[in-house]
Design a protein that fits this description.
Layout: E1 2-5, H1 11-23, E2 27-32, E3 37-42, H2 49-53, E4 58-62, E5 82-84, E6 87-89, E7 93-99, H3 106-119, E8 123-125, H4 143-156, E9 160-163, H5 170-174, E10 179-182, H6 190-198, E11 203-206, H7 213-225, E12 231-235, H8 253-260, E13 265-267, H9 269-273, H10 276-288, E14 293-297, H11 315-328, E15 335-336, E16 364-368, H12 374-382, E17 388-392, H13 395-403, E18 409-416, E19 420-421, H14 423-431, E20 435-444, E21 448-451, E22 462-465, H15 467-472, H16 474-480, E23 485-488, H17 492-502, E24 507-511, H18 513-519, E25 522-526, E26 535-543, H19 544-552, E27 558-564, H20 571-581, E28 586-593, E29 601-608, H21 612-625, E30 628-636
Helix pairs in contact: 3-4, 3-11, 6-7, 10-11, 17-18, 20-21
Bound molecules: phosphoenolpyruvate and manganese (II) ion.
Residues 101, 271, 297, 307-308 line the site of manganese (II) ion.
């Protein structure tokens, strides 16, 4: 049952409730949600719920209808984020895990770890105990394999996961690894689940070969009832009558499971298909279906692999898959996880003052707009979900907050695929020489019709939003709300808080879903934009002195420059010729008027960056071909 606690409950009252539940043999878990704190009490219940309902500090008692309790969405509405080593799984992230099916030797795992890390994997996999169909097949290196796996993970900065097949190995393995893997064949090995659950460590729980979704979630319940709340589910194909593939990938399990449980679910396209050429398309399908990540088998010599060679990707194929997944991420409203999104301790900002900051770590990031704006979404894609934010009224205010050291970073929009360049931010970048671009993030703009709860379509008379929001949803407004007047507002999230303040059920706002969540409002219609290919690109900015910390974990592949050229024929051509000679492919070029110099312009350009050495040389020559030149920052591109 779920015991919803009153907001004014005292610690003593809470303890009394917990004690009573525990003395009645129930397992108790406290879950803090955005609004309420609840206690989940599971086990063989002989208590009358009314006895608990009458206790001080209890708001209500609700039964959980599903057989799995701790794993169910009924108990916990918010997504669980599982932390493995420094890597988080769940929420708005896509996490790539890769490595060989089995650890075969120290050299093999070191080589593959290096290659998959380079390609974008953030967690390393590799079996040391292999549950093989034949007793004569390679069974894995055992503890020796774990040592090599740990060494490779440490060397290349990746947490490691490996399969556990026996309860007697659990304690020994816990010293070497960051996440246990329960294989498909052992999904219902309940003694194993109990032992692993007791460690409290993260567990990757594969779906059994012939398991229903409910059985799979019951296996997760075993782990959770025994002590871990860190479970990641993994769809890896089930056995059907179809023989063309090794298993049949049940892609629909991903969205189904997400409705039923708060636990993250990832996909394993390698074991699902059994064939190398099917891994990438099915991996993309899993991400498109909403998977929080993929676990993929990769081998540098798959023809010599001791197990699962035919389904192992070559490192370069994995690298291509990572790039494709990254391109897909904004479509599903997620970001590809690159280590470390978690900001190292030395980046934490103890002194920062963010009076409107949300709860979370000490790092503070500025954005422009109100709480729940698309810009805030961008901040949380780059940093952690619970990073502190400082909403600023204007772009200029955000630059000032950075400049004064009130925040370590700011995330500001630079370009929208429908609306074009946000020129104010380009101009501001040139005016603050100590502020530099360190990163980039792309957010898909999905508009929603947001209303006070209970509002009906036919009652709506006015719709508020930023003029771009209104323009981008014109088709919907004409079709579905012909009676409503479109009223421009200064920003989308601000329109939502305005509608909320009035409490009026004849008005609505158009904004992103975070604005509805933040303001506790209802989304009446989702995805109402006319053109779904609507993305905004944001720059992550910092002061020069903080730039390297960010760049060290996000190796730059772009550079942005601004320059002016003399007023003579071919001057721009001469400057661009230098770029051509050094192979600096130009991704964007924009001209902007120079403030205070009528009819004079500067250029803003973004260039692909392959080699620092070539860049230095090119900049040196470019200096001769331009009247002024500034590097505005180096960053890792998001597309
Ligand atoms: C594996 O990941 O190597 C493995 C054996 O997977 P599964 O348990 O899904 O077959
Ligand atoms: Mn395998």
């Amino acid at each position: 049952m779920i015991i919803v606690l009153r907001q004014d409950i005292t610690p003593k009252q809470k303890d009394d409730i917990k004690t009573l539940l525990k003395t009645n043999g129930l397992i108790v878990r406290e879950i803090k949600g955005k609004e309420d704190t609840v206690l989940g009490a599971v086990g063989v219940n002989r208590m009358d719920p009314r006895q608990i309902e009458l206790m001080d500090g209890v708001a209500s008692v609700v039964p959980i209808s599903k057989p799995y309790k701790l794993a169910s969405r009924e108990l916990k509405k918010e997504d669980t984020i599982v932390t493995v080593g420094g890597v988080k799984i769940g929420g708005n992230r896509v996490v790539m895990m890769a490595g060989p099916c089995a650890v075969e030797s120290e050299r093999q795992i070191m080589e593959i770890a290096s290659l998959v890390r380079e390609a974008g994997a953030v967690i390393l996999r590799g079996g040391a105990f292999k549950p093989r169909t034949s007793p004569y097949s390679f069974q894995g290196l055992g503890e020796e394999g774990l040592k090599y796996l740990r060494k490779a993970g440490d060397e290349f900065g990746m947490p490691v996961t490996t399969e556990v097949v026996s309860p007697r190995d659990v304690a020994m393995m816990a010293d070497y690894i960051d996440m246990f893997q329960i294989g498909a064949r052992n999904m219902q090995n309940f003694e194993l689940l109990k032992e692993v659950g007791k460690t409290g460590m993260p567990v990757l729980l594969k779906r059994g070969l012939a398991a229903t979704i409910e059985e799979w979630l019951m296996a997760a319940e075993y782990l959770m009832a025994n002590g871990t709340d860190q479970v990641v589910l993994c769809e890896r194909g089930i056995r059907t009558y179809e023989k063309a593939t090794r298993n049949t990938l049940d892609c629909s399990a991903v969205p189904v499971v997400q409705k039923l449980t708060h636990l993250p679910v990832i996909g394993d396209p390698s074991h699902a298909t059994g064939m190398r050429d099917l891994v990438a398309p099915m991996g993309l399908a899993l991400v498109a279906a909403g998977a929080s990540g993929l676990i993929v088998e990769v081998h540098n010599h798959p023809d010599k692999a001791l197990s699962d060679g035919p389904q192992s990707l070559l490192p370069e194929q994995f690298e291509k898959l990572v790039r494709d997944v990254q391109a897909l991420c904004p479509v599903v409203g997620k970001s590809l996880e690159s280590v470390p999104r978690i900001i190292p301790a030395n980046m934490k900002d103890e002194s920062a003052q963010a009076d409107t900051a949300s709860s979370g770590g000490d790092l503070v990031v500025a954005f422009q707009g109100e709480r729940g704006a698309f810009s805030e979404l961008a901040v949380r894609r780059v940093f952690d979900e619970d990073v502190k934010v400082m909403p600023c009224k204007t772009f200029h205010d955000s630059f000032e907050a950075l400049n004064k050291g009130l925040v370590k970073y700011a995330v500001l929009p630079i370009e929208n695929t429908l609306g074009g360049t946000i020129v104010d931010n380009i101009d501001l970048l040139t005016r603050y020489p100590n502020i530099t671009i360190v990163g980039e993030v792309q957010v898909r703009i999905i508009h929603n019709l947001i209303v006070n709860p209970g509002t009906r379509m036919e009652d709506i008379r006015k719709v508020y939003s930023h003029p771009q929001g209104l323009a981008q949803c014109r088709g919907f407004l004409e079709r579905e709300l012909p009676q409503a007047e479109a009223i421009p507002f200064f920003d989308t999230a601000g329109a939502v808080s305005y509608v909320k303040q009035t409490g009026d059920r004849s008005i609505a706002a158009i904004a992103g879903s975070p604005a509805a969540v933040y303001n506790d409002m209802e989304v009446l219609r989702q995805g109402i934009e006319t053109n779904p290919r609507n993305y905004t690109r944001f720059f992550v900015l910092s002061r020069e002195e903080n730039a390297d910390v960010f760049r060290s974990s996000n190796t730059p592949d772009r550079v942005a420059v601004s320059f002016t050229v003399s007023d003579k024929p071919g001057a721009l051509f001469d400057a661009l010729e230098v770029l051509k000679r050094y192979g600096l492919n130009m991704k964007k070029l924009e001209s902007r008027p120079i403030a205070g110099k009528p009819w004079e312009y500067f250029f803003f350009a973004e260039l692909e960056l392959h080699s620092q050495e070539d860049l230095e040389k090119a900049l040196e020559e470019l200096r001769d071909q331009t009247s002024s030149l500034a590097v505005l920052g180096e960053y890792r591109s998001a597309h």
